[in-house]
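USER:
I wish I could look at a protein chain and see how it folds. I am handing you a single protein, as its sequence and its fold in token form. As I understand it, each token names a local backbone shape. I hope you can help me see how the letters and the tokens relate. The protein I mean follows directly.
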Amino acid sequence: FQIKLPENIYHINNIVQDAEGYIWIGTRRHGVLKSTDSALSEETQFVNWKHADADGSYHLQKDQNGFIWIGSEHGTIQKLNPITQELTTISLPDTLTNVAEEGKVQGLFMNTRNRLWVTTTKNIGVYDENTNQWLVFQKYLESYGKVTCIVEDQEGVMWLGTERGVFEAQVPLDIPNKINMTGGFEKEAGLT
């Protein structure tokens, strides 16, 4: 069966399902949508979530504890308990000089170590939920450009798809506020 979304929704950033079965959709320019029923059917409808701008752009990520992380174009990150509707706001680091220009959240990824990887218009950061601190937040470097995709492999290694290829990313414990990026994997594999 098909599920109809509200008209004019042409771009979906993320889809997550909460512990009660409700579907959440982060969109570009149409806010955050939530299903009205916990069981999908042809009658399922989606409505704008009341805590998101109906014309805003949002990215979603569900963590291993069932919380939904919501990043916005306004430079905010919120952690939602979908059962209680409790919201916690995580502030971007003070190092951003212009949140409107640099802080638009473009992607989120929660890894198995409870570290939230965040990409914005011009930055990449790693937030440690266990300590409630930013481990690193740095501008994109010319060597890799804008990050477009983040995944974690089964060994816990973080991989970033960028404008300039695929990079392995590590946050070294002995060098604060830095992400080490190693690239060239697609060349070694003969993909370029």
Notes: The first helix runs from residue 99 to 102.
